[in-house]
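Saturday, quiet lab. Running sequence design on the structure tokens for the scaffold JK sent over.
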């Protein structure tokens, strides 16, 4: 199992962030948290890095189902989605989401499988839609 669901986009960082937010919304996710790693590391450590944004995405009905199976699952929520500049290619932006199957693997709770499968379908649909939106008309 891979740790992420991901894609690379040939676009600006701002466009990738906007499209990622829209794709998440389309799949029923809201962004609860946002961490600007570039700004945080600069402010706290004086260190420079490429654009790197962590979005904490949550689909409330699915989160509710997961918490009802295992109250500790909140330790793994919300689902992190990272939008980051590709250090190897300055024309590329990488969008990657935590693989929801990790919820089952980490907890060993088979009752989470259905929820993880549904979150995976929705998150993969969001990631896939970024490529479709990027296709030339």
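Result came back. Writing it out in full:
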């Amino acid at each position: 199992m891979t740790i992420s669901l991901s894609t690379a986009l040939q676009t600006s960082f701002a466009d990738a962030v906007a499209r990622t937010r829209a794709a998440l919304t389309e799949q029923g996710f809201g962004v609860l948290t946002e961490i600007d790693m570039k700004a945080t590391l600069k402010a706290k450590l004086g260190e420079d890095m490429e654009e790197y944004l962590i979005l904490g995405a949550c689909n409330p009905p699915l989160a509710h189902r997961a918490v009802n199976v295992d109250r500790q699952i909140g330790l793994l929520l919300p689902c992190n989605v990272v939008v980051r500049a590709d250090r190897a290619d300055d024309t590329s932006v990488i969008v990657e989401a935590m693989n929801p199957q990790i919820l089952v693997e980490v907890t060993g709770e088979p009752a989470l499988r259905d929820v993880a499968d549904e979150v995976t379908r929705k998150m993969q649909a969001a990631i896939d839609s970024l490529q479709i939106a990027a296709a030339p008309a």
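Notes for JK: The chain has one domain: 4-129. The first strand starts at residue 4 and ends at 9. Ask whether to fix the surface positions before the next round.
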